[in-house]
């Protein structure tokens, strides 16, 4: 088994990269997808979220009103922590379960764990390599406004809820520059996948996840963050 963590700030290009890796034969475990599954109507985690945040975060049909919840949690660190405490243990449990099930069927699988909050949570997984999709916050803010119809304030609030680009790069074994044309990024991914198949890992002893800081206070971030 080979395990790769694919992380990056919001709108950094992770999904574009993981779609290509799936085409190449990797098994993708997508944390955002699992996070959506656990808040479907009838699930325990959704009930707990309603108990904590109130009926206002539900749509009329009983599904989660994602924008209403996003407006609350991405503007208040305590509320975000409360949501994370309700969702992250279950996301971690399902992730482990998926890895174990896949391993039974395919012990040689190349796993790619698409995990946006790896640096934030210092998630305790043992990866062969950590790949970071990297684009400056300004570029990602524009993408969120253009592609996802967010206001500048909404986009900035999401970016501010995450660690800086610099902190993410500190835990990287491989940095993937996603400001380049997508075809260049795909070519880079294809080359790295060949390397993985050969079992030739880029992990450097000098990159130590354990010594990376967890956050840089907002006021100390540089404009490139
Ligand atoms: C608040 C919610 C409902 C907003 O939903 P929405 O559809 O607008 O966003 P979506 O889930 O598609 O996430 C998009 C991106 O937002 C960022 N993001 C999401 N949750 C968080 C969080 N808790 N902290 C920081 N960034 C986050 C990530 O970069 C993610 O890729 C949703 O993000 C959520 O339930 N978050 C808590 C679960 C979680 O932490 N998910 C992240 C992966 S583990
Ligand atoms: N070189 C590139 N590599 C990857 N994505 C790129 C590149 N250039 C532009 N993009 C664009 O960046 C946008 C964000 O990409 P994507 O949806 O893959 O990000 P993401 O990290 O999965 O987002 P989220 O954090 O919301 O899950 C997409 O519109 C994608 O087309």
TrEMBL record:
Pathway the protein contributes to: Cofactor biosynthesis; coenzyme A biosynthesis; CoA from (R)-pantothenate: step 5/5
Recorded GO CC terms: cytoplasm
Keyword Transmembrane helix appears in the UniProt entry: no
Listed Gene3D superfamilies: P-loop containing nucleotide triphosphate hydrolases
Keyword set, alphabetical order: ATP-binding, Coenzyme A biosynthesis, Cytoplasm, Kinase, Nucleotide-binding, Transferase
Superkingdom of source: Bacteria
One GO term (biological process): coenzyme A biosynthetic process
Reactions catalysed, as given in the entry: 3'-dephospho-CoA + ATP = ADP + CoA + H(+)
Compartment(s) where it occurs, according to its Swiss-Prot or TrEMBL record: Cytoplasm
Major localisation: cytoplasm
Binding site for ATP: 11-16
GO MF annotation, one: dephospho-CoA kinase activity
Family listed: Belongs to the CoaE family.
NCBIfam families membership: dephospho-CoA kinase, PRK03333.1
Protein name listed in UniProt: Dephospho-CoA kinase
Species for this entry: Gulosibacter macacae
């Amino acid at each position: 088994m080979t395990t790769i963590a694919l992380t990056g700030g919001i709108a950094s290009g992770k999904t574009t990269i993981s779609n290509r890796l799936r085409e190449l034969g990797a098994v993708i475990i997508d944390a955002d997808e699992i996070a959506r599954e656990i808040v479907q109507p009838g699930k325990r985690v959704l009930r707990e979220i309603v108990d904590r945040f109130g009926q206002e975060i539900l749509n009329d049909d009983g599904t989660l009103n994602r924008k209403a919840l996003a407006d609350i949690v991405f503007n208040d660190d305590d509320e975000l922590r409360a949501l994370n405490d309700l969702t992250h243990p279950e996301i971690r449990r399902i992730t482990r379960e998926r890895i174990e099930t896949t391993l039974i069927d395919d012990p040689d699988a190349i796993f790619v764990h698409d995990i946006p909050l790896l640096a934030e949570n210092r998630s305790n997984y043992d990866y062969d390599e950590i790949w970071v999709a990297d684009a400056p916050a300004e570029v990602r803010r524009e993408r969120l406004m253009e592609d996802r119809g967010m206001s500048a304030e909404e986009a900035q609030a999401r970016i501010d809820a995450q660690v800086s680009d610099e902190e993410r790069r500190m835990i990287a074994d491989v940095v993937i520059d996603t400001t380049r044309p997508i075809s260049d990024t795909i070519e880079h991914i294809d080359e790295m996948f060949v390397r993985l198949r050969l079992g030739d890992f880029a992990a450097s002893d000098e990159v130590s996840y354990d010594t990376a800081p967890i956050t840089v206070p907002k006021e100390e971030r540089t404009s490139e963050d």
